[in-house]
Amino acid sequence: MMLVAGALALLSNASGRGTASGQGASGAPGDGLTCASGNCHGSTGPFGAEINIALSKDGVDVDQYLPGETYTMTVSINTSSGTPSRYGFQMTAIVGDNTGAGSFSDISSNAQALSINGRTYLEHNGPSNSESFTATWTAPEAGSGDVTVFAAGIAANGNGGTSGDSGTTNSATISEDDLSSVNILTTDEMSLYPNPAIDFIKVDTELNQSMTFDVLNISGVKVTSGKIQNSVIDISNLTNGLYIVAVSGEDFIYRQKIYKR
Hints:
single chain; Immunoglobulin-like; 1 helix; mainly beta; elongated; 6-stranded antiparallel β-sheet; 7-stranded mixed β-sheet
């Protein structure tokens, strides 16, 4: 899914509003000013900034989510003129009642997660030389409905003030996929063993197709993922504990709790 929005949110060239004052500035309901506000960086400026928000699964862009599945969310601030020296952003994802949607992990080194008013926000953790910010997003539970991503940000000239920068905002909606088109396998069709497991999990199924896996901790945060090779999942690098292993194919998904010891 490629969604064009305007640049993400920044309070100053150094730190975001969440870090500086504990405020949301993504443009979501209940947030305060964004960097595109006239008394901040403003929406004009020399760089003509735009934001691209891409949601992908295994390298393929998608525009819907499956409950509980993990996706890569990439936010890129593009410019049409000039040469910004720094970039910043803030974003959050919410459902219809304005509460947070899903969870974020594996956040790129130029960003951080913040909790503001009960919602999770992502924000730059200092002036970023890169225009791109990434994170793994774990979709919310079934029945959550549409998820709206609010984002705001800036392409900055690095002069330490708010003049000569380009800021803008927008939002994007990700719809919940219809699970009727996805076959949720039962233990008669697939199983994972041994359980408990030490280093490896074997996938037992008669299905003959390419499969991928996600391993989530009990909080629903993805800790590892990859393609399944020779019907084996390597969990040797995980700490001991309880995990949810999700196996996905062309038209199915299977989940099973596994204890790693």
